[in-house]
Design goal:
This protein is of the alpha+beta class. Helix content is 37%, strand content 26%. A hairpin with a 6-residue loop joins strand 8 and strand 9 (263-267). The mean pLDDT is 96.
């Protein structure tokens, strides 16, 4: 029997303009799984946290990730998973991706690393598909590989690691309202008007240029979303008003994190990031919505082994 204990971090997907193609890994927050492989067949998942998870393993994102790994590598084994730490589902900071990435990474470690980074991302996307009804890697890839990630293409998967400017602080607020990624994807229109597409690809280019040149002002200007935010902001009470307050307090940008309801802002100073956190908290408190606020730096580290 072989056993591993693995961690995969939370992540922010989309980064404003990069719907389904950009994301970054956050330090500190994340999922921890203990996984064992032994001779036999079947999957068991035990939840040791107080975060509610489905009892049926067919509804847990970890299951399709394990199955995909076994299929891709031609292995057969009995896999037991213990969920030891879990980001709250529906939070908008990549809860399903953290479990999926940890499961893919853990399986690879259990079987002596037969899969490449891209192949592990392919496995992790199976979990994302179960959770959201779509294959996207903008949470799963940063959760596995760390840093700021661009998915240049999906067929085949082409993942590009982008530079992290030194003065890059994110403030994330998780208001306790439930927005399921599935629903938040369903409300998006199937076609994007040319005018919005032009503004979106201009911003993606600007964001990449800003990251490479370390120009946080440009990064902030480019973190604009004409594709998903206009439809999704209705789920976040007072979204436009909050953004006005955040930008007036010196932050460079504020956007929905992934499909929401979490919101994140970008600052080039730690103090500004903390001020943004206070404003976000006041905003949701005054509406009777409980929230959690994190001020975080982007981490280079993705999924990793932990001591047992
Ligand atoms: N890119 C995905 C979406 C991320 O916006 O639906 C989900 O967290």
């Amino acid at each position: 029997m072989k056993k591993v204990r693995v961690f995969a971090p939370a992540s922010i997907a989309n980064l404003g303009c990069g719907f389904d193609i950009m994301g970054l890994a956050l330090d500190e927050v994340g999922d921890i799984l203990e996984m064992t492989a032994e001779e036999g067949d079947g999957i068991t998942i035990t939840n040791l946290t107080d975060v509610p998870l489905p009892d049926d393993i067919e509804e847990n994102v970890i299951t399709p990730v394990i199955r995909k790994f076994l299929e891709m590598t031609g292995q057969k084994a009995k896999i037991d998973v213990r969920v030891c730490q879990k980001i709250y589902p529906g939070s908008g900071i990549g809860s399903s991706a953290a479990s999926s990435a940890a499961a893919a990474y853990g399986m690879n470690e259990l079987f002596d690393c037969p899969l490449s980074d891209e192949e592990m991302v392919v496995c992790a996307m199976e979990g994302e598909n179960l959770a959201s009804g779509g294959y996207h890697a903008d949470n799963a890839a940063p959760a596995l590989l760390g840093g700021i990630i661009l998915i240049r293409g999906y067929e085949p998967l082409d993942i590009i690691q982008l530079p992290i400017p030194g003065n890059f602080y994110c403030t994330v607020v998780h208001p306790k309202i439930m927005v399921s990624t599935k629903e938040a994807r369903k409300i998006l229109p199937k076609a994007v008007p040319m005018h919005d597409a032009i503004s979106q690809w201009g911003n993606v280019g600007g964001l990449i240029a800003g990251l490479y040149s370390g120009n946080i002002g440009l990064v902030g200007r480019a973190m604009r979303d004409s594709v998903a935010e206009p439809y999704r902001k209705q789920f976040i009470p007072g979204f436009d008003e909050l953004r006005e307050k955040i930008l007036a307090s010196g932050s460079m940008a504020m956007n929905i994190s992934g499909s929401g309801p979490s919101v994140f802002s970008l600052s080039d100073k730690r103090e500004t990031a903390h001020r943004a956190g206070e404003i976000m908290k006041e905003h949701f408190d005054s509406r009777g919505i409980k929230c959690e606020v994190y001020v975080v730096k982007v981490t280079n580290k993705g999924a990793k082994l932990l001591a047992q």
